[in-house]
Amino acid sequence: MGAERLSAAEAVESHVRAFFAGHSVEAVDYDLGPERRAVVPELRVLVVAPGPHADSWAYVTAGCWAATARDGHGLEFVMTAHVRDRRFVDLMAMLAHYHCGGHPLGLEHSMPIGEPWVPGSACDHLLISLPYLHGPALEHCPLPEGHARILWALPVTTAEIEFRRRHGHEALERLFIDVA
Q1: d(CA 179, CA 97)
Q2: How far, in Å, CA of 51 to CA of 48, rounded?
Q3: C-beta separation of 51 from 22 below 8 A
């Protein structure tokens, strides 16, 4: 299983590097600590600099698929930000541990993060959505043992989560489109 995990994480990294050709990509091995490391043994966070494909930073997990895949299918996550900051690597590691540690996330799920994602922000949850900023070319990642789907971890507010609970995910996405 270890070799499969490593090959999956390497395949995700290769996919991300190919998608973001022309961008600097750094693989950060995240120290979750021994007990949490067992939940996501091969976790790395890929830090993608702005470049020809996107003008923002991207933070992508590599290692979730190997820890949670079922029948060859599993998830990884991407988040974007306008700056490079260690807090986003920490947040992606927290998301990976949450997802792989008994709280499986999927499309339209959300996760509380317990504090604003950046100082002064009201966004204290992550909403799992399609990676609209990057499209299906990033979303669909073939792997040696199956397929990973890379979904967007979008920072949102508690009020937006409540709106989604009352009106549905599509209504919230329409609200985002109307505001943009």
Answers
A1: 32
A2: 9
A3: yes
Give all strands (DSSP E) within the chain, no chain letters. 25-29, 44-48, 57-62, 73-81, 110-112, 123-129, 140-143, 146-157
pLDDT grade for 1, boundaries at 50, 70 and 90: very low
Contact 41, 72 (CB under 8 A): no
Q: Is 119 exposed, middle or buried, given 0-12, 13-18 or 19+ CB atoms closer than 10 A?
A: exposed
Token representation of residue 161? 């989560």
**Which pTM value belongs to this model?**
0.93
Q: Per DSSP, which regions of 66-178 are E strands?
A: 73-81, 110-112, 123-129, 140-143, 146-157
Query: Which tens digits make up the pLDDT trace of 32-43?
Result: 777 777 888 889
For 167, half-sphere exposure in the C-beta direction (CA atoms, 13 angstrom radius) is 12
